[in-house]
Specification:
With 335 residues, the chain is an alpha/beta fold. Helix content is 22%, strand content 27%. The protein has two domains: 8-181 and 196-248, Zn peptidases (Aminopeptidase); 265-333, OB fold (Dihydrolipoamide Acetyltransferase, E2P) (Beta Barrel). It starts with 7 loop residues before the first helix and ends with a strand.
Length: 335
Amino acid sequence: MFSPHKDFLAHTLANAGAEHSASHSILSAGTEVTFLDTGIIRFEPNTAATTSLVISCGVHGNETAPIEIVNKIISDLLDEEQKCTQRVLFIFGNPLAMVAGERFVDINMNRLFCGDWQHNDLTLPEVKRAAKLEAYVANFFAEEPVTVTQRLHCDCHTAIRESARQKFAVYPFVEGRELPQSQQDFLAQAQVNTVLLQRKPANTFSSFTSLKQQAESFTLELGKARPFGENNLREFTGIDNTLRKLIAGEPLPTCMEGAVEAFEVCHEVNRSSEAWQFFIADDVANFTEFKTGALIEQDGEREYRVGDAPEYIVFPNPKVPVGHRAGLMLKKVGL
């Protein structure tokens, strides 16, 4: 299927900027495999599937560990060493950035979804790719059989910055929605024991599938970004095994109370002017705790200090342009 390349990843890297005509094959167990496009492949079992599962990675090209894990799952499915009873769409999001070994080439793809690609330069490859990914995912869900009762999306990433909590999930905001027990079970089984509950809409890939496709979705931050071949994949056995269970249709055990801790945003840090000051060191890890009264940012007479309970910072980046987000302050909440 990937000739002359050895596997799906090798084909994707060799054809990063190329179009690919869809091709089909049937495995001996009856699973239909459709190679839709460069970096996009679908598996349809010949049994009555109850789940439509999207597994994406490589939306940021230098976040390679999930790519390597997913590539092995795809190889095992094709070799029929991995059981497949559910519909699965695999996506390597940004092949050009994967080849470059960079987060992105021209524009951060994970800020282009929910239709935001329409408001950017449509000649840029990453803008065109975001539009195509939306279409492939929408078609995948639209074509599901009546037996399907749930839609899931795992968008797998690794972080540039170290984290006091090595693995964490971001749960996109949907009006009136709370994190169900089934998704807490998924996170606990995947050894992702921290979840950030978003409280406003966003334009990430997982937000698109949540808001526009009614899927239970996560952005999964699974560790540190490293080049291909430099990942210790033993650190990712939790997510690897759990994705395999979902694909096989195996039930996940109910997690113990408190197995997953939840946070929500209590303050958005924005670089408000050239005179703005940020009092967070460059090497501070995600989920670093700050005590009551700690000064976080200041711009003239405006300042932000930690409130009555400890707060935690994620995604600090003081080098953003004026008017852009420079970090998020979080507080713990109950589930």
